[in-house]
Amino acid sequence: MSRREFLRGVVGALVASATSMGRSRAEGGAGERFEIVKSDDEWRRALSAGQYAVLREGDTERARSSPLDEERRPGVYRCAGCDLPVFSSQTKFDSGTGWPSFWVAIDGAVRTRQEGIRFFIPATEVHCRRCGSHLGHVFGDGPAPTHLRYCINGIALRFEPRPTPSAGG
Ligand code: FE
Fold first, then answer.
1. What is the spatial order of strands in the sheet that 157-161 belongs to?
2. If you measure from the C-alpha of residue 47 to the centroid of ligand 1, how many angstroms do you get, rounded to a whole number?
3. pLDDT tens, residue by residue, 101-111
4. Considering only CA atoms, which of 46, 45, 82 is closest in space to residue 157?
């Protein structure tokens, strides 16, 4: 390979990565289809402004801004866009980051896509399998058994506490 061919390859790779990073996170990857599809207007009507920014525009809420960061009750966390159960309290842990954190998602509930480099670390975006809404990111520095850390925006979740068994029931 000549020096010139080598350089052409490097430039091509850089352009390809810049192009994939520029794609809107809420749009989904090439060929990705979702069960629930809404127009932008429908999403704006269905969500609060804060939810829309995170779920549909890939924004990140401020650390420690969600009450779900400190939520400790047993229950299920649903996608705020479509109500699909996406995380369980059983896999939630205190990451100290200020965002609700889980070491695994509910089976088949989320999908991921490579997002390029974010703060010098390769970032993997996490979105809802059913409606494609952006939920957060997943990193490889979580606890056992998966060693994953799903760093999720609380505003992208709806917590449903498990009903407490009634006395004498
Ligand atoms: Fe969803």
1. 85-88, 75-79, 157-161
2. 12
3. 999 999 999 99
4. 82
Cα angle at 18 between 14 and 5, to 5 degrees?
A: 20
Calculate how far, in angstroms, residue 109's C-alpha sits from the geometric centre of ligand 1: 9
Q: Which residues are catalytic?
A: 151
pLDDT in tens, 114-156: 987 767 777 899 999 999 999 999 999 999 999 999 999 999 9
Q: What domains are there in the chain, each with its CATH number?
A: 3-161 (2.170.150.20)
HEC per residue, 54-84: HHHHCCCCCCCCCHHHHCCCCEEEEECCCCC
Ligand 1 centroid–CA 49 distance in Å is: 17
138 forms bridges with which residues in the sheet?
124, 150
Structure letter (DSSP) for residue 25: G
Cα–Cα separations (whole angstroms), residue 156 to 2, 16, 63, 78, 117 = 50, 30, 13, 8, 23
Task: Give the global pTM.
Answer: 0.79
The three-point CA angle 73-74-80 to 5° equals 90
